[in-house]
Inverse folding.
């Protein structure tokens, strides 16, 4: 009897399932990541008399509260922040976990560091208490954000999940010049809506994905959660293998050959059933920018702020108006030309070396017109960017160059936007007050953010001559 065709996600779920009960699946977690936000979870483990079940398979990376102004605790925003960082690092070490803390050259944003170290690899289950753990799907791993269940994973190396349905997003074609993976995913989310992939496992596929580098794949998987995805994945291929080869935690020697042989078997079978399939032609995508307080509230740079009066549904009409009021915009106003107050380039979405190279193309030889903060996604990215002279390009243009970490994406480390100010950000979220109380955030690609930095307003990056 011929086996039933299965999706890649179903294969990995089956391989890691311990048992199923009450509509839930108990999964074994291959690798766990905790951050400097883990104080409550560590408290539950300690108060319950537990320990960390498998510390060799658990890693703590300080990233949310870490200062961008310097590499030591002395640079932290305040005493409470210093205590949170120091406390989580010390607790993790006491349990025997590896810690990438302040001062460690490998430290950075957990989602990028996991790939840089090959801590995340094809075919394994990765769990972390952060919604953008989905980034690891770019490497063919099966990632789960465990939220408040972090303590359970620390103590048991397992997690209960509701088995997700499957959705394949086919991305075909090639991008026009100066349009990026960030524009593609903003376009997809704008088309599908904030619940377009609610609760399902999204597999990105198609000719565009097959030709896309790992950093761009990370951007797609990172932001899939903004349309409600429970987890994401891209089938590993030669691009994945080339990226992982030689990294600190990648298999070596004969084990590498055995690993690649196995990794080549990780794909969705022809004819595998997905609950939903959608397709997009990326050659039609334009540079995108968000206007409202949801990632789905995005339009091409040549587009207009929507007019709530044209929305027949009352609830949607009121929501549109609330976003317009909060963002200080006018219905039918053009996005191009909108004056901005600040620019942030970084985050787990767009803090890779490729992202910084792309932004630097539009800053080189120019001066920024508004305060601009550039924060590399990891220590390795920072070191390479400085070696290549990218840091000098930004600093010479008048931008600030920071230590790696989440920084202004989540505004938890002291990097925040004053109430009422408008920021172009390469991060993944633009919710109310995301960058600080009363802040107004417009999401865009690194190229678009760099163009806004030198122009002091939103502009079409395609019209900006590269210096």
């Amino acid at each position: 009897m011929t086996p039933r065709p299965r999706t890649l996600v179903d294969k990995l779920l089956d391989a890691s399932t311990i048992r199923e009960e009450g509509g839930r699946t108990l999964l074994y977690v291959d690798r766990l990541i905790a951050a400097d936000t883990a104080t409550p979870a560590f408290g539950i483990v300690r108060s319950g008399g537990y320990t960390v079940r498998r510390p060799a398979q658990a890693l703590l990376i300080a990233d949310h509260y870490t200062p961008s102004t310097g590499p030591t605790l002395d640079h932290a925003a305040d005493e409470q922040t210093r205590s949170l960082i120091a406390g989580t690092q010390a607790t993790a070490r006491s349990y025997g976990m590896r810690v990438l803390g302040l001062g460690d050259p490998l430290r950075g944003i957990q989602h990028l560091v996991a790939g840089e170290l090959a801590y995340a690899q094809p075919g394994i289950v990765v769990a972390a208490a952060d919604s953008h753990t989905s980034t690891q799907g770019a490497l063919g791993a099966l990632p789960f954000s465990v939220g408040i269940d972090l303590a359970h994973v620390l103590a048991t190396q397992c997690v209960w999940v509701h088995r997700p349905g499957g959705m394949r997003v086919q991305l075909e074609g090639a991008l026009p010049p100066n349009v990026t993976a960030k524009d593609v995913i903003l376009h997809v989310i704008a088309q599908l809506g904030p619940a377009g992939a609610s609760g399902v496992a999204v597999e990105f596929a198609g000719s565009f994905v097959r030709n896309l580098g790992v950093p761009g794949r990370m951007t797609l998987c990172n932001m899939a959660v903004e349309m409600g995805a429970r987890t994401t994945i891209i089938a590993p291929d030669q691009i994945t293998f080339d990226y992982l080869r030689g990294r600190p935690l990648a298999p070596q020697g004969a084990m590498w050959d055995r690993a690649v042989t196995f990794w080549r078997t990780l794909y969705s079978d022809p004819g595998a059933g997905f609950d939903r399939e959608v397709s997009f032609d990326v050659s039609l995508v334009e540079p995108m920018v968000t206007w409202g307080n949801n990632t789905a509230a995005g339009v091409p740079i040549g587009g207009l702020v929507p007019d709530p009066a044209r929305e027949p549904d009352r609830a949607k009409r009121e929501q549109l108006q609330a976003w317009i009021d909060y963002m200080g915009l006018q219905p039918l106003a053009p996005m191009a030309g909108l004056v901005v107050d600040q620019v942030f380039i970084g985050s787990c979405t767009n803090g890779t070396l490729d992202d910084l190279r792309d932004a630097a193309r539009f800053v080189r030889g120019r001066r920024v017109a508004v305060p601009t903060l550039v924060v590399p996604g990891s220590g390795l990215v920072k070191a390479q960017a400085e070696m290549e002279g990218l840091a000098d390009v930004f600093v010479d243009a008048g931008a600030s160059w920071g230590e790696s970490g989440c920084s202004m994406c989540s505004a938890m480390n002291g990097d925040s936007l004053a109430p009422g100010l408008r920021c172009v950000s390469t991060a993944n979220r633009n919710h109310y007050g995301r960058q600080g109380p009363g802040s107004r955030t417009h999401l865009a690609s690194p190229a678009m953010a760099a163009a806004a930095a030198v122009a002091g307003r939103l502009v079409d990056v395609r019209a900006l001559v590269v210096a």
In short: The CA atoms of residues 106 and 293 lie 34 Å apart. The chain has three domains: 8-161, 166-284, 288-463. The mean pLDDT is 96. The chain has 15 helices and 19 strands.
